[in-house]
Amino acid sequence: LAKTTQPISMDSYEGQEVNITCSHNNIATNDYITWYQQFPSQGPRFIIQGYKTKVTNEVASLFIPADRKSSTLSLPRVSLSDTAVYYCLVGDGRGGGFKTIFGAGTRLFVKA
Amino acid sequence: DVKVTQSSRYLVKRTGEKVFLECVQDMDHENMFWYRQDPGLGLRLIYFSYDVKMKEKGDIPEGYSVSREKKERFSLILESASTNQTSMYLCASSLGGQDTYGYTFGSGTRLTVV
Question: What is the rounded average pLDDT of the residues B88-114?
Answer without folding.
Answer: 84
